[in-house]
Amino acid sequence: MEGPWVEKYRPRTLKDIVGQEHIISRLKRYVEQKSIPNLMFTGPAGVGKTTAALALAKEILGKNWRQNFLELNASDARGIDTVRTNIKNFCRLKPIGAPFRIIFLDEVDNMTRDAQHALRREMEMYTKTAAFILSCNYSSRIIEPLQSRCAIFRFLPLKGHQIKERLKYIAEEEKLDYEPTALDIIAYLSEGDLRKAINILQAAASLQEKITEDTIYEVVSRARPKDVRRMIKTALKGDFMDARNLLREIMILQGVSGEDMVDQIYQEVSRLAMEGSIEAETYIKFVDSIGEYEFRIREGANPRIQLEALLTTFLSK
Question: Of 144, 169, 227, 228, most Cβ neighbours within 10 A?
């Protein structure tokens, strides 16, 4: 296999980007006009923010896009010196064969407040020669003066069928032998993150000739949802010892961590509530308990003891 599939199959143009139709249609208008305002892309990981920025730059700047495009990861270069040197020096140069230059700053929410204020000043000084594209997971961490200078685009988690279609395309390109249900499971486990889904697929392809459900669970070290549901239902029936044995079996045999286990318990309890198997008031109490025990595990308490204690709260349904 040649390199990460995430890069190999990264869309090169706006029309090839998976999902985000409400955003792509607006970005295409900027391409037609050959002009963009300062932009802010915000949303969870793996939903296409970086891909959209690269594709937009290539289509607007044309064949000279590399000379006129600066990409910085603000989580690494997060201080005020980055703004004062790298960005300022780039903005001072005249565009080469393009109407303006583009600076793409990824993970801007990791920049210090002083650096964000310095960036605001640079955006004001070079409005005629450069455009900025800011990318972040949490727009609430961006200072208001920066947000007010950008057109904000909110990227959404991708839908399961969109992820599955992309995985099917990659599987066919790589000539993989797979079970259709395996792609369903990857889409379920990725939770709207296409990058995560592609990485799971590539990891699974390296293990066996045929990608099966078992291969996927082996790669991600997650419990099968049906096993987690069976454990919860056993506890709801009042049979703590059987539920406890199922918990230990899942954690030991399937190698599931405490944090992943509590997350999957929350997902299955939520699904049971949506199906009407758990009443609303009971569901609220369960969520409160799950939140409490998840906090304890993250703070360093013994995961197995905490999860067994969590199961006891399900006995008094």
Answer: 228
- As a whole number of angstroms, the distance between CA 99 and CA 129 comes to 8
Pick the CATH number of 160-220 from 1.10.3720.10, 3.10.20.600, 1.10.8.60, 1.10.10.10: 1.10.8.60
Higher pLDDT, 253 or 311: 311
* Lookup: tokens for 226: 């049906």
**CATH code that applies to domain 225-313:** 1.20.272.10
By CB atoms closer than 10 A (0-12, 13-18, 19+), residue 281 is exposed
Q: Write down the pTM of the prediction.
A: 0.80
List of E strands, the chain: 39-42, 69-73, 101-106, 130-136, 151-154, 177-178, 210-211
73, 99, 116, 124, 292 from 145: Cα distances, Å: 21, 26, 9, 11, 37
Q: What b/e readout covers 39-71, taking b as 16+ CB neighbours within 10 angstroms?
A: bbbbbeebbbbbbbbbbbbbbbbeeebeebbbe
Q: Are 275 and 239 in contact (CB under 8 A)?
A: no
How far is residue 130's CA from residue 92's CA, in Å, rounded to a whole number? 9
Contact 119, 83 (CB under 8 A): yes
Delimiting residues of CATH 1.20.272.10 domain(s) in the chain: 225-313
What token pair was written down for 39? 């932009």
Q: Could you tell me which residues come within 8 angstroms of residue 169 by beta carbon, excluding any fewer than 6 positions away?
A: 9
User: What is the third-level CATH fold of 5-154?
Assistant: Rossmann fold (3.40.50)
Query: What are 64-116's pLDDT values in tens digits?
Result: 888 889 888 766 655 666 667 777 888 888 888 888 889 998 888 888 888 88
